[in-house]
Amino acid sequence: MIFLNNQLMPSDESATLFMVSNPIPFENFEDHETGIFIRLHNLIAWSMAEGDDPIALIEEYLETVYTDSRTVDEIANFLMYHDKMQSAMWTLKENWSNLDDTVPDDSLMYGGMEKEDAVQMYADTTLRRYLEVLSRFESV
After folding, report:
1. CA distance linking residue 18 with residue 62, whole number of Å
2. Which parts of the chain sit beneath pLDDT 50?
3. Distance CA 23, CA 3 (A)
4. What are the extents of the domains in the chain?
5. pTM of the entire structure?
6. Contacts of 88 (CB under 8 A, 6+ apart)
7. Torsional class of 21: left (φ above 0), alpha (ψ -120 to 50), beta (otherwise)
8. What distance in Å separates the CA atoms of residue 28 and residue 77, rounded to the nearest whole number?
9. Residues 52 and 129: beta-carbon distance below 8 Å
10. Which of 37, 50, 53, 75 is deepest in the core (most CB within 10 A)?
């Protein structure tokens, strides 16, 4: 199941960054954050399997230098704690603190997208796409 809540992810960009696969809806920010960390691991591993260099992608899109090890775990840790990612996570945390539990997750009252579109976007997201969106993400 793809976790999408239009209050938490009101734009295509935030959906790209914060949508994750989870068997049940999240109930708090911390669990959602863990899901995002797992998603980063998967995107990095898939990138490597496809022959891409995730470190080169990170350096290109985030305009930063990476000098740690080449393991998926180290790369994911670096990415998760990068300033751009932390800024995006702060936005998500704020959205969680303002969450209205009386509104259905898929309500378009807060913008967002239809579930079918979200599933397709999730399936199409690569590490390159994720980093491209992260590099342009603006906290609100």
Report:
1. 18
2. 108-110
3. 8
4. 2-136
5. 0.88
6. 14, 17, 18, 134, 137, 139
7. beta
8. 21
9. no
10. 75
